[in-house]
UniProtKB/TrEMBL annotation:
EC nos: 7.1.1.9
Single biological process term from Gene Ontology: ATP synthesis coupled electron transport
Top-level taxon of origin: Bacteria
Catalytic activity: 4 Fe(II)-[cytochrome c] + O2 + 8 H(+)(in) = 4 Fe(III)-[cytochrome c] + 2 H2O + 4 H(+)(out)
Taxonomic lineage from the root: Bacteria, Bacillati, Bacillota, Bacilli, Bacillales
GO MF term set: copper ion binding; cytochrome-c oxidase activity; oxidoreductase activity
Organism per entry: Pontibacillus chungwhensis BH030062
Protein name (Swiss-Prot/TrEMBL): Cytochrome c oxidase subunit 2
Gene3D superfamilies: 1.10.287.90, Cupredoxins - blue copper proteins (2.60.40.420)
């Protein structure tokens, strides 16, 4: 028991230490995804609250006491209305859940169909156990991604070996990198800052090391950085 307590306590230390918060979106893509999480969670909590209230109420109402201790309930043959009710309610809940989920999923898939005119192109290659980012001018960085603010970024995702998953919780994802396939993801960062990213698909012994830092910069700073990096490799 003591061990479990320690484990839970240390988990919290780790969780507060990381910058992988999903519910702190800094792009429209991440905001939509965060909305879906909160919406489905709220719906789930409504069901949870109703079930718990009924559970406690029935426990107390039908508990055994001195008056009813010899009472044996009649053998019910079922109630069609009750059966219909608790079959229809989940259908309604699923329909409510499906509307925003399907529309946001289709919307985000449709975005990838066309590239915005002013998009920054970045090639992302995942390999055991690091990330390589290739920029339009030939510059490459490892585990260190830089993006300009307020411009759409089109990521072209490829894997060198096995399946990885590209994820920057505050900006968007996850999108799987599948060997032999090229996938795309478009994100527009709305705020400068440093955001953690990581591989979200268990990909081997050092999977946890497959983290990267995303720095969103003012566009002029970004261009300057790209230029400086280019001069270094020339
Ligand atoms: Cu990986």
């Amino acid at each position: 028991m003591k061990k479990i307590k320690w484990l839970v306590a240390s988990l919290f230390i780790f969780l507060t230490g990381c910058n992988l918060r999903v519910l702190d979106p800094k792009s429209e893509t991440a905001r939509d995804q965060s909305f879906l999480i909160q919406f489905s969670f709220a719906l789930m909590m409504i069901v949870f609250a109703i079930v718990i209230i009924l559970f406690v109420w029935f426990l107390s109402k039908y508990r055994e006491n001195d008056q009813n201790k010899d009472y044996i309930p009649a053998d019910e043959k079922g109630s069609p209305w009750l059966e219909i009710t608790w079959t229809v309610i989940p259908f309604i809940l699923l329909a409510i859940l499906a509307v925003p989920t399907v529309s946001i999923t289709f919307e985000q898939s449709a975005q990838v169909e066309s590239t915005p005119a002013n998009a920054v192109q970045i090639e992302v290659t995942g390999q055991q156990f690091s990330w390589t980012f290739s920029y339009q001018n030939g510059v490459e960085t490892v585990n260190n991604l830089r993006l300009p603010v307020d411009r759409p970024v089109e990521f072209t995702l490829r894997s060198e070996d096995i399946i990885h998953s590209f994820w920057i919780p505050k900006l968007g994802g996850k999108k799987d990198l599948i060997p032999g396939k090229t996938r795309r993801m478009i994100v527009t960062p709305e705020e400068t800052g440093t955001y953690q990213g990581k591989c979200a698909e268990f990909c081997g012994r050092e999977h946890t090391k497959m983290r990267f830092t995303t720095t969103v910069m003012e566009e002029s700073e970004y261009e300057q950085w790209l230029q400086e990096m280019k001069e270094k490799i020339e």
